[in-house]
Amino acid sequence: MKEEIVFSKEQKPDYIHNNPVKAGLCRLQEDYKYSSARFYERNEKDLVFLTHRDG
């Protein structure tokens, strides 16, 4: 697997959102259940963002 270097803050969300696609978990970035891509691509406002984690 080839590593990518992310240079700008505009590239970072796209890089993160594309990881499930590269892993074969979904076809489109916004189709991945746990991705914020739907918030940005489809303007879905009912998205629940993770604000903390246990442990």
Can you walk me through this structure?
It is built from 2 helices and no strands. It is mostly helical and 55 residues long. It has one domain. The chain is globular. The model has no long low-confidence stretch (mean pLDDT 81).
Give Rg in angstroms. Answer: 13 Å
The biggest sheet, with number of strands, parallel, antiparallel or mixed sense and barrel status, is: none
What is the total tally of β strands? 0
Beginning-to-end CA distance, first to last residue: 31 Å
Topology readout:
Elements: H1 11-22, H2 37-41
Fill in the keyword field for this structure.
55 residues, mainly alpha
Give the structure's gist in a few sentences.
By secondary structure, this protein is an all-alpha fold.
